[in-house]
């Protein structure tokens, strides 16, 4: 039983603490300055990772719930208005009230 626990603990460390930039910096600071310096470095890394996770979750929730839909609807409205005014300047749209039009805007 103790052998199983030790091997599972070792595998957990191997998968959860891969060597990377923060691990290398923590090792360097730990050898030079001690425990508290490494603790502050790891807490900063934790805050940074949590911030990225929160931003990703907020972005996914905003797309799912519809926070982004009003902005995209407004963008489409502005784009269609710009397209109509450009076509009107080029004489490709017939204005309302013209005998050839049966709706508000008709392509010529």
What global shape is seen?
elongated
Beginning-to-end CA distance, first to last residue: 84 Å
Identify the strand order in the major beta sheet.
1-2
DSSP helical segment count: 4
Low-confidence stretches: none
Give a quick account of the main beta sheet: strands, pairing sense, barrel closure. Answer: 2 strands, antiparallel
Helix content: over 70%
Number of beta strands: 2
Query: Which structural class should the secondary elements be placed in?
Result: mainly alpha
Overall average pLDDT: 76
The string of secondary-structure elements, in order, is HHHHEE
> What is the radius of gyration?
30 Å
* Residue fraction in strands: under 5%
Overview of the structural elements:
By secondary structure, this protein is mainly α. It has a domain at 19-93. It is built from four helices and two strands; from the N terminus they run H-H-H-H-E-E. It has a two-stranded antiparallel ribbon. The longest helix has 31 residues, at 35-65. The protein is elongated and about 85 Å long.
């Amino acid at each position: 039983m103790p052998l199983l626990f030790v091997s599972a603990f070792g595998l957990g460390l191997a998968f959860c603490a891969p060597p990377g930039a923060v691990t290398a910096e923590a090792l360097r600071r730990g050898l030079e300055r001690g425990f508290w310096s490494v603790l502050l470095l790891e807490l900063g890394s934790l805050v940074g990772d949590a911030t990225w996770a929160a931003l990703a979750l907020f972005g996914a929730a905003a797309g799912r719930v519809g926070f982004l839909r009003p902005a995209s609807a407004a963008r489409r409205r502005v784009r269609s208005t710009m397209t109509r005014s450009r076509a009107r300047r080029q004489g490709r749209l017939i204005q309302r009230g013209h005998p050839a039009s049966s709706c508000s805007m008709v392509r010529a």
